[in-house]
Amino acid sequence: MMSRGNRVIFNQDGKIIYETGEMFGHVLPHEEITRLYHVDLEYGTIDYSKYRIVAIDVETMEPIIEKLPVNETEDQKRIRELEDILLLSIDAELGGIL
Prior knowledge:
alpha+beta
């Protein structure tokens, strides 16, 4: 078992921006930070209900985003399956246009 202390990120005035918190158990040590950057994104730049930031390109300072997985409800899954069945049925009736 390993313990890891709290890492505190703060601004030029000493205001705390983020804390990692202390951890004990199967944890990895903190990575060394040799330089710290920041980027301010305008409100609405990213639709966080559909995407998440995975990294920042340090050369362009642009966010690198990935689409969040869509978790279908059972009703949504059943509707999609029925739509697929209907499309295939219509396709077969019309002679295979799909």
